[in-house]
Amino acid sequence: MRRFWSWLKINVFWVFDLCCPSEKSDLNSKDTDVESTMSAGGKKSTTATPNAASLVHKVIMVGSGGVGKSALTLQFMYDEFVEEYEPTKADSYRKKVVLDGEECSIDILDTAGQEDYSAIRDNYYRSGEGFICVFSITDADSFDATNEFREQILRVKNNDTSVPIVLVGNKGDLADSRVISLAQAQARAEQWNAHYVETSAKTHNNVDRVFYDLMREIKRRKVGFVPSNSTNPERGEKKKKGLKKACTII
Amino acid sequence: MTLRIDSSTFDVPFEWYIYHLPPGISTTQSDFSNLAELLQSCADLSRIRLPKKFQDYEQKAITYPERKYIGAPKSVLECLDVTDYLVLKDREAAIRPSEIRGGPIDALIVFATQASGSLLYQEAFLSTYRTFTSSHDLLQKLTHRYVYMALSSEPASQKAARLTFSVIVRVVDELCTVEINKELVAIVTNFVYRLIRDGNFQLARLLRTRLIERIESSAVVRQPTVYMDRLKKGETLLDFRSATIAQQLTLLDQRLFQAIEPAELLWWAEAQDEKRCPNLVAFTEQFNKMSYWVRTVVLTPKEHKERERYMNKFVKIMKQLRRLGNFNAYLAILSALDSGPVRRLEWGKMATEQLKEHAVIMDSSGSFKIYRTALVETAPPCIPYVGLVLQDLTFVHVGNVNYLHAEAVKGRTDLLNFGKRWQQFAILDSIRKLKRWNYSFTRDDRIIAAFKCFTSLTEDETWELSEMIKPRQRRNP
Ligand SMILES: Nc1nc2c(ncn2[C@@H]2O[C@H](COP(=O)(O)OP(=O)(O)O)[C@@H](O)[C@H]2O)c(=O)[nH]1
Ligand SMILES: [Mg+2]
């Protein structure tokens, strides 16, 4: 028994040695710029002119399971070979990019793993400023599902059909097993008034283009227009006013 | 930071391990309070020390060794010390567990039984081995090792046998329901017979008891049946205090949360196979059920006043849940009150403002930084939002290779990336830690009856109801 206690003591000390209590400070010190944009709660009035560097574009990946959402996300985030990917870190889904000469960040949400938590899905969608709607060109069901995903998005966004969405046909490298033709996919994108891009997360083909196309569109909506009830996406407080106006028109 | 430790101090106190533990309780419960740093130290592969020895690629079929076998070429499973087979962090200090960066599977198994290993490594191994081998295969290899080591009367060998036995007990103790099948039980019972044949009655009895206990306690937890007649006539949710309602919701959640086996989380992240994760699926279902139930209760009353009463009630319950640290139910209710069909209706200023204040916790920016901070700052007991745990584990899985890149390790392709397992372990360990706490409320069936088994409308039905209350406006006429 005494042996056990000495063993325990040593282990406890040693564990302490390993685990110095730096977690909290670590959490707080990183990404302070992120914090400030977040605590601003999307109110752009706090920064008089929208500062492009502090702009964070929130993008959400949607699509059936297995089409390559996570692969595309990781490919875009880390185009180089990564040794260790740690998803719990604050910057693990965020990337600084230069978009048309201006610096900004993209924050990507891929809810991989939490798909079955369907009750919270709409709350995520609502926070999205742009959507990447992915199917696999080798899987017809996944193509069919894209309509449903778009409908869910539109419902949450109050049928604002101008919400930026890019339709993505992934697994372009598997041309031999293609079941969805380019024309088919393009027709759907046209119907949605959206871009269609064919990608391969495997060969990295067009991966960046998808994200940059979408960011451009988001940015145009965010800073390109003076917010008005017709073009502004419904966000936060403005929603009710917009609705009332629309009401009087009808 | 460089504490030099004599390897003998790591000796797991075998006698205590085996005889002083209440049966059925998993053995070591050391607290690794901060794994963040540990993870950091795994991050760079640039400074690793390659193995001194490499294992033969071919695996021999596993059989119990014979006495004459001693002296024949050894397999890794039969080595006293496998450190030379492992990929370590290149550092001068004594072996610290986080320095295990990878290695062949068998060497990683043996290292978990070694006195020169460590409790932390052992925990990480036991929490994550299912990502690279099955409990079935692991038990086969461990029993082989035990039998081999027990053959020799040398002290070092005897000690290795004892340590191996203690790991076998751990594995059996923590078997998952879905793993307990005929083949696996056969491995353990054959081993028990072997122990009896060798005259090791005490160990045989112990292992047999543990196995039986594990089998008996392995039923899937289901939500208890509730009898509506416990509720007085006309009594509704509104007749109970928000704090007590929150407590009862928490008790229900806790039961399901406690039932989740860490392995289910790992399996889910890999394959989303519902059959292997029954308790996790039940917990997730409860989250959705609760959320749709709240929408239903709020939207169903015909009178606006009545709907508003329920809305305000749930805001209060939600705040209580937050206070209790039940993030699961808190987010379930928040996601309901902030859902499309509910939030589009007009509510009082108080409710609207409070909702807005709380809803930031669902913000996914910075990898759910706001939620993570809130969770870290909450004193246990608490119930986390498991959805994010699943997302983390999923990304650890898809974002990290299973085997170390060949170019980093002299072209070898059989060296498992244990850095990935350290990450998985850190996530699972945070859950394991939370599972050790319990809320001490007493169950009140009358309040639980008021939940009406969380019967609810479907998502589409709640939208219809919402649009009946307030017709949808066309945006682009
Ligand atoms: N050939 C090919 N395979 C891909 C591609 N993108 C993803 N995959 C594979 O498809 C499977 C599912 O990918 P994943 O990203 O997990 O899909 P998710 O469920 O939509 O996130 C994985 O095995 C990927 O390796 C691609 O562009 N080409
Ligand atoms: Mg995925």
TrEMBL record, chain A:
SMART domains hit by this protein: RAB, RAN, RAS, RHO
EC number(s) per entry: 3.6.5.2
Region (Disordered): 26-46
Pfam families named in the record: Ras (PF00071)
Mode of membrane association: Lipid-anchor
Keyword Cell membrane: yes
Signal peptide range: 1-19
GO MF annotation, one: GTP binding
Compartments reported by the entry: Cell membrane
One GO term of the biological process aspect: signal transduction
Keywords, in A-Z order: Cell membrane, GTP-binding, Hydrolase, Lipoprotein, Membrane, Methylation, Nucleotide-binding, Prenylation, Signal
GO cellular component: plasma membrane
Polar residues bias: start-end ranges: 35-46
Family stated for the protein in its record: Belongs to the small GTPase superfamily. Ras family.
Protein name per Swiss-Prot or TrEMBL: small monomeric GTPase
Origin organism lineage: Eukaryota, Metazoa, Ecdysozoa, Nematoda, Chromadorea
UniProtKB/TrEMBL annotation, chain B:
Domain N-terminal Ras-GEF: residue ranges: 96-216
Lyase as UniProt keyword: no
SUPFAM superfamilies reported for this sequence: Ras GEF
Recorded GO MF terms: guanyl-nucleotide exchange factor activity
Top-rank taxon: Eukaryota
Keyword Membrane in record: no
Entries under PANTHER family matching the protein: GUANINE NUCLEOTIDE EXCHANGE FACTOR (PTHR23113), RAP GUANINE NUCLEOTIDE EXCHANGE FACTOR 1 (PTHR23113:SF224)
Protein name: Uncharacterized protein
An individual GO BP term: Ras protein signal transduction
Keywords: Guanine-nucleotide releasing factor
Domain Ras-GEF: 241-472
Pfam family, one: RasGEF
GO cellular component: plasma membrane
Alphabetized InterPro entries for the sequence: Ras-like_GEF, Ras-like_Gua-exchang_fac_N, Ras_G-nucl-exch_fac_CS, Ras_GEF_dom_sf, RASGEF_cat_dom, RASGEF_cat_dom_sf
